[in-house]
Amino acid sequence: MDPFRDLVPAFAVGALPFAEGARFEDHLRACSGCRDELARSRGVLLRLSPEVMPAPRVRDLVVDISEAPALPIDFEAFAWEEPFPGFRMATVKVDPARRFRASLLWARPGARFPSHRHEGDESVLVLQGAYRDEEGRYGPGEVAHRRPGSVHSIEILPGEDCISYAVNYGEVEVIGT
């Protein structure tokens, strides 16, 4: 694995110290993989905040969500759980100090995730397929955001499997069936 790959999100938001940023820029000249990853990260940043440098909380979210894996995903590389029929989840990253969890969600059309409450913020980047909840419909490249205390349920829309990358800051409590 390229040791510079982990620096891409921080570089995208200007969070690397000067010397480390200069080394990363040198690396970018030779590494097309990091250049591609940087373009993806900056694309996410522009969708969230096109004209101003984000506040630290937003910057953390951008860095966290920019770590979403690119398609196609090697599904065999993850340990999947199926909390509800047709709905699979795989934990990708956990940081207990930040109460942070990043998960891949993979669901079949028609699958439902019952009503649940978010203790902290949640942002979901849809990579493939689509879903809807009480606030709208979300398709590839779109980010759905839920504030602490929000309650919603999810239905996967017809078509292809829905693959999403969710970042949560706090627990999720299922309150419906």
Characterization of the model:
There is one protein chain. The protein has helices spanning 8-12, 18-30, 32-48, 56-65; strands spanning 81-84, 87-95, 100-107, 112-118, 122-128, 131-133, 136-138, 143-146, 151-156, 162-169, 172-174. The chain is an alpha+beta fold and 177 residues long. The protein has two domains: 5-65, no CATH class; 75-174, Sandwich (Jelly Rolls). It has a six-stranded antiparallel sheet with strand order 1-2-3-10-5-8, covered by helices on one side. A five-stranded antiparallel sheet has the order 7-6-9-4-11, with no helix packed on it. Helix 3 (32-48) packs across helix 4. The mean pLDDT is 87.
Structure described in brief:
This protein is of the alpha+beta class. The protein has 4 helices and 11 strands.
Please tag this protein with its features.
177 residues, Jelly Rolls, 2 domains, five-stranded antiparallel sheet, 4 helices
Please give the count of helices: 4
Largest pleated sheet: 6 strands, antiparallel
List segments where confidence is low: pLDDT < 50 over at least 5 consecutive residues: none
- Report the oligomer: single chain
Instruction: Tell me, briefly, the overall form.
Output: globular
What average pLDDT do the residues reach?
A: 87
Indicate how many domains the architecture comprises.
Answer: 2
Per CATH, the architecture of the largest domain is Sandwich
CATH class label of the largest domain: Mainly Beta
**Order of strands across the main sheet:** 1-2-3-10-5-8
How helical, in percent, are the residues?
25-40%
**What is the alpha-carbon Rg in Å?**
17 Å
How many strands?
A: 11
Proportion of strand residues? 35-45%
CATH homologous group name of the largest domain? Jelly Rolls
How far apart the termini lie comes to 41 Å
The structure class reads alpha+beta
Strand and helix order: HHHHEEEEEEEEEEE
CATH topology of the largest domain: Jelly Rolls
